Amino acid sequence: LRRKLLDSDSLLAPWCNHFLRLARTQGEWFSPYTVLAALVTREEADIQRAKDAFCRFVELAPQALGSNEAQFHTHVTAAPIGRWGIYYDWLSQLGIFSAGENRQIQAALLDHAYVFPLQALQGRIRSFDNQILSNAFCATAVGYVCGVKRGDSAMGRRLFSSGLAWLTELMKLLPADGYSGEGSTYQEHVVMPMVTLSALLMQETNGQ
After folding, report:
1. What is residue 110's predicted lDDT score, i.e. its pLDDT?
2. Taking phi first (over 0 means left), then psi (-120 to 50 degrees means alpha), and beta for anything else, what does residue 207 get?
3. What pLDDT was estimated at residue 180?
4. Which among 153, 173, 155, 163 is positioned nearest to 205, based on CA atoms?
5. Separation of alpha carbons 174 and 64, rounded Å
6. Beta strands, E only, 79-180
7. Based on the number of CB atoms within 10 Å of its own CB, is 128 exposed (0-12), middle (13-18) or buried (19 or more)?
8. Mean pLDDT for each consecutive 10-residue tract of the chain (208 residues)?
9. CA distance 4 to 93
C-alpha cells in the first residue's frame, strides 16, 4: 500500500498528495491525516506532526470530557475516540512514543471510553442504531488496544469484553441490506463506514 501511495504513476498518487498537503499545512484541522502521512512516508517531519497531534489530544482531553458533545451527544465523540485508539495502535508500530507518552495517551483514551461509551451502553436496549454502534466500537477499540495489544489495563480489558459483546450482538441485528433507517447521506458517510470499521475490528480481535 505504501508503494502504491508513493508511486507517482499510481492512480492513488493524487489522493495521497492531497492528504499529505493537508497534513503538512493544516495538521491541526486535519489531524488524522498527519497519522496517514507518518505511516506512508516515515519522514521525520511527518512523524513529528503525528506525535504533536497526540500531544494535543492528551492536553485537551480534560476539556473534551466536559464538552457539550461528550455530555449530551456521546456517540459523536465515541466514534472519533475509537478511531484515535486505532491510530495510536498504528503509530505504535513505528516505536515513536516514549514510555511516558504511551501512559498519557492510553490514560486519555481509557478515561473517555470508560466515562462515556461504556456507561451509555449499559443503559441502552439491544437494538441496532448508529449511536449504540459508535459507543460499542469505541469501547472495543480502546479496550483492545490499551488492555490487550499495546497495554495491560484492567479497565481496558473490561471495555474490550463489554464492547465486543455489544458489537457482536449489533452486527447480528443489522438488517441484511445494511440499511438502518437513516437518510442516504448519513447512511453512506456515517453508518456504513462505522459498520465497516466495526467488522474489521471484530475480525482482528476474535477472527469473526
Report:
1. 98
2. left
3. 78
4. 163
5. 30
6. none
7. middle
8. 89 93 96 96 97 96 90 90 97 96 98 94 83 94 98 97 94 84 81 91 90
9. 20
CA 164 from centre of chain = 15
Take residue 122 and report the three cell numbers written for it: 449499559
> Which three cell numbers, joined as nine digits, stand for 36?
496517514
pTM summary value: 0.93
Q: Cell 504513476 belongs to which residue?
A: 9
Q: Which residue has the cell 451502553?
A: 121
* Rounded CA separation 31/119 (Å): 27
CA distance 192 to 188: 6
Phi–psi pair at 94, nearest 5 degrees: -85, -10
Helix axes 31-41, 44-65, angle to 10 degrees: 150
Structural element, H or E, at residue 183: none
